[in-house]
Amino acid sequence: MIEWLKSVFNLILPPRCLICGKEVFSDNSLCAECFSHINFISSPFCQRCGKPFDISVPDSNLLCTDCVHKRLPFRLCRSAVVYDENSKKLILDFKFFDHLENKYLLANWLLLAGKDIFDEGVDLIIPVPLHFSRLLKRKYNQSAVLCDALSKLTHIPANYKALKKIRHTLPQVSCNGKQRLHNVRGAFEVVLPEMIKDKRIVLVDDVFTTGSTLKECAKILKKAGAQSVDALTIARVCD
Question: What is the predicted pLDDT for the residue at 8?
Fold first, then answer.
């Protein structure tokens, strides 16, 4: 009965591509043309931070220069797609313009991108939190919405209370690399450490630019007793 009603509804209001608005065959999807323009991140990439390599490399277990010389607070970081003109509208519509229906497609992309993370075992999914002042203005935390959808796909519980943003910061997009580190330093706090102690955690956010926010959150979670922290984002800036 439900499928019949859905078929009738789709005849009246057919599903539309989440990017260009063309008619498509299924809900919450992209048309063939828009899908073909999405640059999915695939091997070869750094096995720790997930940064794609510009050239083909024979060894799939290589680390990028940054990961060779720096100790990262998260174990693995993975992103589904390159953040560019082809993926930007999908993400910005979801983040700023109430297109929450995009979460179904984006959560599936996160699941695919994080396969090796989930294969290792995950106890808890945690969104990068927003400061309450920004949450009031935006009405929702896009990372928390993604966590909810990803939790339903994986049957792994999501926690929205343990990690809190305690200091209002400038939007990271308005800062350069060094400013981003200073901007988020001391901005997060684990307020319920008993919820994350000895847990294998996946941090979820929308876009990885320099990783400053994810690194700060991971550092705080590890300090509070998390067994491991991995990071997962929809997109990554690849300059």
Answer: 47
Confidence of residue 22 (pLDDT cuts 50, 70, 90): very high
Q: Which structure tokens are listed for 234?
A: 């929809």
Pairing assessment for the beta strands 163-165 and 124-127 based on DSSP bridges: unpaired
Q: Map out the domains of the chain with their CATH numbers.
A: 1-37 (no CATH), 74-236 (3.40.50.2020)
pLDDT of residue 2: 55
